[in-house]
Amino acid sequence: MLKTYTGGCHCGAVRFEADIDLAAGTGRCNCSICMKTRNWSAIIKPGAFRLLSRPEELIEYSFGTGAGQYRFCKRCGVHSFSTGYVADIGGEFVSVRVNCLDNVSDEELAAAPVTYANGRDNAWWDRPKITCHL
What we know:
This protein is mainly beta. It has a single domain, classed as Beta Complex (Metal Binding Protein, Guanine Nucleotide Exchange Factor, Chain A). It is built from two helices and ten strands, in the order E-E-E-H-E-E-E-E-E-E-H-E. It is globular, with a radius of gyration of 14 Å.
């Protein structure tokens, strides 16, 4: 069920709203950045995301092909969302960190399906052999 969530970083400088259907699925990956930041996210279209804080509160990081722009709070360092373009997943996207949502219940998080991606081996469509640490 589509629901409007609010969320943001730890210090409150970065705030957003996002329309997300957690029952449609979330994702975890074993690529280098997802492993190091413990990413657990829901991918949505840009029109379903609204940044409520000033863009100047964010710092951007990109690497590799530059397909993703990883944004984080310049004050507390929390990564609450990223943006990018990947044709194979429908073009432009916003990847919202579900652990940065404020009005999500433990029950909603526990019920959200998780798809695992093997980004470490560039086999994005395959599930890694071991996922319990993701």
